[in-house]
Design goal:
Elements (H helix, E strand, L loop, with lengths): L3 H11 L34 H6 L7 E6 L4 E8 L12 E5 L18 H7 L3 E5 L9 E2 L14 H20 L3 E6 L1 H12 L7 E7 L11 H8 L2 H7 L4 E2 L3 H12 L9 H6 L10 H7 L4 E2 H13 L10 H8 L18 E6 L7 H10 L8 E6 L6 H4 L3 H15 L3
Helix pairs in contact: 4-5, 6-11, 7-11
Length: about 425
């Protein structure tokens, strides 16, 4: 039986920010293509990730801004030294968060438990990405985040523009190739970019993919599958809601509809969505609420829903042959072929037996795509007890995942 008060509490905690409301419906603006701006912009604003989460722990921190070719201004934090104060002796590492969070997710536990701090203390030059649309990456060269056009993107644009701009910026600033860490959606955009084998691939030393998302057709989260099958995101988009999530006045009735579907249990929402996370410190919930959740584009949710329904890893489907031909020159959206990922690219995959978003069977399908990888260039770390959020917020993730990942980076840092 649905315990609606607990659903409401968890939904507010993990998905609906107190500051999120129904989107103003305004006419879209016109985005302009601009070159990547290769310069840093150090912010004096007190409300920054550096000042609220990094410097308070005794670490040096820099705030940078990176502008993508389609005009989005992204916030990036850099932790150039560890607590010892010694200059980083190892290559840069770019951390890319997943869906509905921002870079704060890598910093919310104690310094001995948070990956951002652990990497800095191990001598790496740490860079923290914030996806377009999140709190600190709301800028644009010509659009306001209240414009419909600002939210006209899916993870295709994160591959084509955001990741490209961030990797080039870090490589240009440091003069070094970099390691990459992605969680959830952060793994999908990297895998898609690797499969394209453009110039970007030569800027990476290696990549660590935590809770890797690629194949989604075996996803066991009933709540997530029902939302995809009911075309919830498409319905929101048709009603003019370009930012996700919309306000509770919109999302509440939708959640009721999903939770009333046969076989769907919403009494424990986070478990229903991500799996039974074993190792998250519940006392950090208050700190989590200060920084998360973060919005994304409704079109991004539609794109992920298409993958769940079709079992394909492809570009955004515009819904008709004519529209797809207009965008892609063909009637169906082009596929991202995971088998095209270079076999010599060192990859570290961490996945969990309880994960209901990056299901072990889907991860195994990805591993099958990568089976021709060079010997020693593909490393797996599997934890039977881990679910989706444990890889970022687990209090024992350092021992279970991060220590072997750092060893992997050290091997490939020369």
């Amino acid at each position: 039986m649905l315990n609606f008060s607990s659903v409401l509490t968890l939904l507010v905690l993990f998905f609906v920010s107190p500051n999120v409301s129904a989107i103003d419906k305004v006419f879209p603006g016109n985005a302009k293509d601009v070159d990547i701006i290769i310069k840093s912009s150090i912010s004096d604003n007190d409300d920054t990730i550096c000042k609220s989460l990094v410097q308070t722990q005794g670490y040096a921190c820099e705030e940078h801004k990176v502008t993508t070719k389609d005009g989005y201004i992204l916030s990036v934090q850099r932790i150039p030294v560890g607590r010892s104060g010694k200059t980083a002796s190892k290559p840069p590492v770019l951390l890319q968060h997943g869906l509905l969070v921002d870079a704060a997710a890598w910093l919310l536990n104690t310094p001995d438990e948070s990956l951002g701090f652990i990497l800095a203390d191990n001598g790496f030059d740490v860079w923290l990405a914030n996806t377009r649309g999140t709190k600190y990456s709301r800028g644009h060269t010509s659009l306001s985040s209240n414009d419909w056009a600002y939210w006209e993107w899916s993870w295709d644009e994160l591959v084509q523009y955001d990741l490209s701009a961030l990797v080039q910026y870090v490589q240009y600033t440091t003069g070094q190739k970099l390691h990459y860490v992605g969680h959830s959606l952060g793994t999908l955009i990297a895998l898609a970019a690797f499969s394209e084998q453009g110039k970007l691939i030569n800027m990476f030393k290696s990549a660590a993919l935590l809770s890797p998302i690629a194949h989604l057709n075996q996803i066991p989260s009933q709540l997530t599958k029902e939302a995809a099958q009911l075309h919830i995101a498409e319905e929101l988009y048709s009603l003019g809601y370009r930012q996700f999530p919309p306000g509770w006045d919109v999302l509440g009735p939708i959640l009721k509809k999903i939770c009333n579907e046969p076989g769907t249990n919403c009494s424990e929402l986070m478990t229903a969505l991500t799996g039974p996370n074993c190792c998250i410190n519940s006392s950090r919930a208050g700190e989590l609420l200060k920084h998360e959740p973060q919005p994304t584009a409704t079109k991004n949710i539609i794109h992920l829903s298409q993958m769940i329904r079709t079992g394909t890893i492809a570009m955004y489907d515009y819904g008709s042959e004519d529209e797809n031909k207009e965008h892609y020159g063909q009637s169906a959206p082009p596929a991202y072929n995971m088998k095209n990922i270079p076999k010599e690219l060192p990859l570290f995959l961490g996945y969990g037996g309880q994960d209901m978003l990056a299901d072990p069977n889907d991860v195994k399908a990805l591993l099958n795509d990568l089976k021709d990888h060079d010997n020693g260039e593909l490393v797996e770390v599997y934890s039977e007890e881990y679910a989706h959020a444990d890889f970022v917020l687990g209090v024992n993730a350092s021992k279970v995942v991060y220590d072997p990942m750092i060893s992997f980076f050290d091997i490939h840092s020369s």
